[in-house]
Specification:
- The complex is a heterodimer.
- By secondary structure, chain A is of the alpha+beta class.
- Chain A has four helices and ten strands.
- In chain A, strands 1-2-3-5-4 form a five-stranded mixed sheet. In chain A, strands 6, 7, 8, 9 and 10 form a five-stranded antiparallel sheet that branches.
- In chain A, α2 packs across α4 (212-250).
- Chain A is globular, with a radius of gyration of 22 Å.
- By secondary structure, chain B is of the alpha+beta class.
- Chain B has four helices and 16 strands.
- In chain B, strands 8, 9, 10, 11, 12 and 13 form a six-stranded antiparallel sheet that branches.
- The longest helix of chain B is centred in the C-terminal third of the chain and has 16 residues, at 189-204.
- Classes of the chains: A alpha+beta, B alpha+beta.
- At the A-B interface, β3 and α4 of A face β6, α1, β15 and α4 of B.
């Protein structure tokens, strides 16, 4: 990684043509890739690469809440641990929770509390673990987006997915999804998380200063971006179950009775599960 | 497996699965006249009732479920049973098939014992109670315990138990499937190994069409020494 600490302060984060340091325009996202179900031991998991960010999310539960005194007799707890690996940043990060990661854990768990249908699982806890393997600004948004996919992958009932994106101000221009240099040397960064279906805002923070007009613009940019990210989340979840489907189709099924060779079953018919006949043994 | 009816698709939480004229069933919720999926799953619509059958998730006890449990703790008049769910499940001495003196629970069941039992009741706070007041409920000895994803249990059982009886006949094993995803197998070691492979096959291919044929084929090849 480049030693970004030595970038001179007067560097232009966005030039006259409106092109940023990494070649993006003010309203462009970094490339995002989401993968669901990457961990075998967790109930649900997801991995996201968002520009230079690499984040792993794992979900356990609903499971018995410990310590017992934390249990809520009416609903489930949603607990989150956001953690950065010591090697995730250019200077070694001292391992363990610090002021920043405790704060991020808290706001992420509160964001998910708004969508998880907690009343279905009284006295339990749903535990979300977000591990940042490589950081490049916007890790809380990346972590939240991945954790949302991991929750869905775990089969946890939710009102909707949560989608998150940041926008900020660099060189006097309001821009979407700041990278590390832009975050360090820009004027403001404003991460937010929304519930795409209803448009509810479940996380909103701001570092730096934006005028009301600038904030409105930043929010508009983020909301547009979350629609794109939502589609990526949906795609990751559907791919998780269609890959096994392709494997089934690819695998040479021994010419068994009832399934003639070269049978062209449509993909949809593969989903026809034996759903009704769940009797006792 | 029947391929009639509307085609089923995978939906993600918050995805619309129907509007007016339909009733929200299990795995869904309604909001402003629209019905949405509450979790990842496959849409199923019959008689105007829309439900989403989950593809993943924990076992949540329902009254009447047959479960395979493991004793994790003893009380003076009850045993605490792990039934692979988020909730601890006590089995009260009066629900056991024996006459248990107070403080004498250890004589009948001990920590680590595995038992076949039923869920007696589940209240609003999801407090569970188990019962052994049933012909098939007992403590098991010998055999093997296999754990699968609880949401795949319906496929392992099959329609009217077709899959499970196929595996039983094909492997000459005793197979007891708990709704909590635990399966107890009894028989000769090599038969059990075959049954485990057959059940794992069902678990992996839970979405496949013609699963029964696939398992039938697998078992007949294994029998021929393939």
């Amino acid at each position: 990684m480049e030693d970004v600490e030595h970038i001179p302060k007067k560097v232009k984060l966005i030039d006259e043509k409106g092109v940023r340091l990494d070649g993006r325009r003010f309203d462009e996202l970094r490339p995002i890739r989401i993968e669901a179900g990457v961990l075998g031991r967790a109930d649900g998991s997801a991995y996201i690469e968002w520009g230079g960010n690499k984040v792993l999310a794992a979900v356990y539960g609903p499971r018995e809440a410990h310590p017992r005194h934390l249990q809520d007799p009416a609903r489930a707890l949603v607990q989150c641990r956001y953690n950065m690996a010591p090697f995730s940043v250019s200077d070694r990060k001292r391992p363990g929770p610090d002021r920043r990661s405790v704060e991020i854990s808290k706001i992420i768990s509160e964001a998910f509390s708004a969508v998880v249908i907690k009343e279905q699982f009284p006295r339990t806890s749903v535990d979300i673990f977000i591990e940042v393997l490589q950081a490049d600004a916007g890790t809380r948004c990346a972590g939240l987006t991945a954790a949302s996919v991991a929750l869905a992958d775990a089969g946890v009932p939710m009102k909707d997915l949560v989608t998150s994106c940041a926008s900020g101000k660099i060189g006097g221009v309001v821009a979407l999804d700041l990278n590390k240099d832009e975050d360090n040397f820009g004027e403001a960064d404003c991460p937010m998380a929304v519930v795409p279906r209803t448009g509810d805002l479940v996380l909103l923070q701001m570092d730096g200063h934006l005028t009301y007009a600038e904030f409105q613009k930043a929010m508009g940019l983020s909301l547009d971006a979350t629609r794109k990210i939502y589609e990526m989340q949906r795609d990751a979840l559907q791919r998780r179950y269609s890959t096994t489907l392709e494997e089934i189709l690819k695998e040479p099924v021994a010419p068994a009775q009832g399934r003639p060779e070269g049978s062209t079953d449509s993909i949809d018919s593969e989903f026809d599960m034996d759903l009704g006949g769940a009797g006792g043994p | 497996m029947d391929s009639s009816g509307p085609t089923r698709q995978i939906v993600i939480p918050g995805e619309s699965v129907g509007g007016r004229g339909l009733k929200p069933g299990p795995g869904t919720f309604s909001d402003g006249g629209q019905i949405y999926a509450a979790h990842l799953g496959v849409v199923d619509e019959r008689d105007g009732l829309v439900s989403v059958v989950p593809l993943a998730g924990r076992y949540i006890p329902q009254p009447g479920d047959a479960v395979v449990g493991e004793i994790v703790d003893l009380g003076a008049s009850h045993w605490l049973v792990d039934i692979n769910s988020p909730y601890p499940a006590p089995l009260h001495a009066t629900e056991s098939p024996w006459h248990v003196e107070f403080g004498d629970t250890r004589r009948y069941l001990n920590v680590g014992d595995v038992l076949l039992c039923h869920v007696l009741s589940v209240d609003e706070a999801n407090r569970v109670q188990l019962t052994m007041q049933d012909r098939e409920a007992r403590r098991v000895q010998g055999g093997q315990l296999l754990e699968i994803e609880p949401m795949k249990v319906p496929r392992v059982i099959g329609r009217q138990g077709s899959m499970i009886s196929l595996i039983k006949e094909g492997t000459r094993c005793g197979v007891y499937v708990g709704q909590n995803g635990r399966i107890w197998l009894d028989g000769r070691d090599e038969d059990i190994a075959l049954a485990v492979r057959a059940i794992k096959l069902v678990e992996q291919r839970a979405q496949a069409v013609g699963l029964t044929e696939l398992v039938k084929d697998f078992l007949s090849r294994a029998r021929r020494g393939g």
